[in-house]
Design brief:
Elements (H helix, E strand, L loop, with lengths): L41 H21 L5 E5 L5 H11 L2 E6 L5 H7 L3 E4 L3 H6 L4 E6 L7 H6 L1 E9 L11 H5 L4 E4 L5 H13 L6 E5 L3 H9 L6 E5 L3
Parallel strand pairs: 1-2, 1-4, 2-3, 4-5, 5-6, 7-8
Helix pairs in contact: 1-2, 1-7
């Protein structure tokens, strides 16, 4: 009844444990069937419904248009996070370990781009960010990231880091900082995100493969070269 059905203990994901994107049809409860805005390309809706909503939700919950927001990782999630945060009016810093993505990140709307491997650059950003959203699933210099938060700042994890994240309580306590995480968003968040994307002409950057070339699509994905989401087009 709260509108946060995605947090239900008995939640049943569409993809995990089901046919997901490989199904020809899907049957869903009407509460989860969100109409697409007319000017939104249906081919762009898939990545928005997944990765787009995953990064939109923490921005809607924790960011204000006047704030300084950092996006860690410019990939399938991160590139959409930059677009959303920029359209929201935030001062956006993109963190990436790949210098080849610097110009792309600025093209997505980042005001600043920093190498996540440059410890000196990270130290210069101490006390800067109101919100840091980490979209990666790898180990980072967590102490440096938390130190980069402003008073009352928040580090929010949407990337599924596979090992424990070490945190010093004092690094949080003395500046009243927070660490949080979330899955994808609720149906309410999905509808808000789609409306926002429609109004601001936000779309994911995608590569398209016909379903008959799905093995090529998987090889592209596994190579890490996809920019930045792969869409399979039905060819039957």
């Amino acid at each position: 009844m709260s509108g946060r059905q995605h947090l239900c203990p008995q939640v049943q994901p569409t993809i995990v444990g089901h046919r997901g994107g490989f199904a020809t049809h899907i049957r869903a409860h009407w509460a989860w069937a969100i109409p697409l805005p007319q000017n939104l390309n249906p081919a762009d809706a898939g990545p928005l419904l997944c990765g787009g909503n995953t990064v939109f939700a923490p921005l809607a919950m924790y960011a204000k248009p006047t704030q300084r927001v950092g996006i860690i990782g410019i990939g399938g999630l991160g590139h959409m996070a930059v677009k959303f945060a920029a359209a929201y009016g935030c001062d956006v810093t993109a963190f990436t370990s790949s210098e080849s993505k610097f110009d792309e990140a600025k093209g997505f709307g980042a005001n600043h781009v920093v190498s996540s491997r440059d410890s000196a650059a990270l130290q210069k950003l101490a006390g800067t960010f109101d919100l840091l959203i980490s979209t990666v699933n790898v180990k980072l210099d967590w102490d440096a990231m938390i130190a980069a938060l402003a008073p009352n700042g928040r580090l929010h994890l949407v990337g599924a880091v596979l090992e424990p994240v070490p945190i010093s309580v004092f690094s949080l306590m003395m500046q009243q900082r927070s660490v949080s995480s979330s899955p994808t968003g609720s149906p309410v968040s999905i509808e808000s995100m789609l409306g926002f994307a429609s109004r601001h002409n936000i779309a994911p950057q995608t590569e398209h493969y016909p379903m008959s070339k799905i093995n090529d699509a998987f090889a592209r994905l596994q190579s890490g070269k996809a920019r930045y989401r792969i869409v399979l087009d039905a060819d039957f």
